[in-house]
Amino acid sequence: MSTILFVDDHHAARTVYAEMLRNTGHVVLEAGTLAEAEYLIARHRGGVDLLIAEAVLTTTNGAAVARRLKPLHPEMRVLFVSEQPLKALSEERLIPKRAHFLKKPMAAEALAAKVSQLTKAGHVKKRASGAGSAMADTSAGHGDLSETGIYGKKKVGIDS
User: Fold this and answer.
1) Shortest CA distance to 63 belongs to which of 119, 123, 7?
2) Mean pLDDT across the stretch 60-69?
């Protein structure tokens, strides 16, 4: 299955959702802060397919977490979660308007379906890129999380 990094500063919620994901066969790395996430992702052997980030963290926000971690795993998809509605979060510019998003509390089935959708799309993109494609659009589904514009089109070369 897929490797997921789950960043949420609410330990109980993070633990419950991580266990739901493990029960569907995913490897889940858990972090409560950006610093913990950076530590885990730097030491993890292998890729990270999906970042699930709480949109509103005590010391930062989910978009800032994604901006810091995406350069380490450019192929990583991003899913934001929050108890706040998407409209309010995007109006406050905490996450991109077109971001993948689930509102907490999440049912196990809804979480599994969204994760499956995002990780399957990522695996299709990886297979296509391995077949000789020189460029891949890495913004699909997670937006441009750069400092200048949170949602634009960027193309990143994948040939090594």
Assistant:
1) 7
2) 95
